[in-house]
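BUG: 3D viewer hangs when loading the predicted structure for this chain

Environment: internal workstation, default settings.
Expected: structure renders.
Actual: progress bar stalls at 90%.

Input used:
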Amino acid sequence: MRNQLALVLLILASAATHGLSQTGSPRFSVSFPVERSAKPLDGRVLLLLSNNDSEEPRMQIDDSPRSQMVFGVTVDGLKPGEAVTVDDAAAGYPIRSLKDVPAGDYTVQAVLNVYETFHRSDGKTIKLAPDRGEGQHWNLAPGNLFCSPRKVHVGPGSKVAILLDRVIPPIPDEPDTPYVRHLKIKSALLSKFWGRPVYLSAVVLVPEGFDTHPNARYPLAIFHDHFVSGFDDFRTTPPDPNLKPNYSERFHLAGYNRIQQQEAYKTYEQWISPGFPRILVAKLQHANPFYDDSYAVNSANLGPYGDAIETELIPAIEKQFRAIGQGWARFLYGGSTGGWESLAAQVFYPDHYNGAFVACPDPVDFRAYGNIDLYKQDNAFYLQGANKQVEQPAMRDYLGHTLITVRDNLAYEAALGDHGRSGEQYDIWQAVYGPVGADGYPQSIFDKTTGVIDHQVANYWLDHFDLRAKLEREWPAIGPKLQGKLHIYVGSDDTYFLNDAVYLLEDFLKTTGTAPGSVPYDGEVQYGPRAEHCWNGDPTLPNAYSRLHYNTMYLPKIMERIAATAPAGADTTSWRY
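Structure tokens produced before the viewer hung:
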């Protein structure tokens, strides 16, 4: 017996020497030192693995086929020096579980996306990542803890300890320039809802001669966009001749960064040219704990952003920058999220604006929520056939190749955050459009694991934020206020299938004016043949160029609208110089 035991021990020792005793899944322990925080922290620990050394792993996580790996775990009250384990239980993307990561050497990095506690006026207490000036990007958010990347071996039984010994620094404010100015206000409405001070801000492009014509008052265009710090499409200096050209995968163009600089400088030359319409353009900043903007409407989960923008921020812009300040002299434009916001603001506040130029809007009819019919389908992941299930795409390239499925897109968001806290697209849609759940977080429109659609929640969406449905229900009342104001543009091959919802919206708009007493919408819906996201209505240029001209391309139509609708005695001259 003693000899047999010795033999067993010898075999085990030999196996350990050769690494054969390593069993089980990889395990990572993540902690932070007291020097980084003396108090416990809440948040989402994101473990990042990469086999690409071109940049830090935290810069390589997205919803494209190029994405490296992320595994997420939520922590509540994690104390300094205390470790959280990231293992099989962590939600992963694009590989779902650490146990399925192929054995090998990887660059590892970890980030703690720090949450704060909000005591909202609706009685709900929730933990979220506040925006800290970066536009809800966890990999750039000031105050988030992280570590330097390092090489590790990942395999069965491997164990790696990670110390979050670095912190992302604050982002400095952008300075004003002769043409780009900034404004920031505290919102009373939003501060009351969120139980703490909440600020709204704007980046304003002022016209040539703004400072030398103090008596001029200007029309205002609201350019709805994502969170931005300036006007990247406006450049007062010629293109940099030493700029190293890059290649745009999206537009299949070499040197696209040079093209962007060239077109931005052309916009500046046009902007200052004699006879060019003098107008204010404002990009609104309303990043929040769920996303990089609020969708510019009132919602149960985000609060009264619509009213705050309309009654607090825009009046402040108009006062400081001498806008005319009347509905006939206000316009909207934007693409994608900004396209939806432009249409929604025009529809929810029909008297506030004189026209919306809506490019590639997020779904405006939830019968085409991308590829999903939220009202008739039971599952978001697949189309149910007679004898099979067909996996549904969420994104495609210009040739129609699927880049990510709905199932994978939701796994991506689930890895970044639970309870709708990913800061990504599907999560903000359900936060804006949906009701508050019993736990205080947005009630899910579908299960991220199974894809099952909650039709009770879908009906809430239908009643509150399906823009086609709202227009159809309320056209007798709001149609006369919208006549001639709706201009909608989308590529027929939109990357996110957004053209499908526009088709359905157009089907309704074509019926306006046909019933007794109904007014026609008298606008336009245009499609860009073979154009992907985000075609914005210029049939003379490829989308790669037209998307760089938002601040000038709609101005001729705006000027026509002003000429046709300005009330008698209105100021149509002080800003024409």
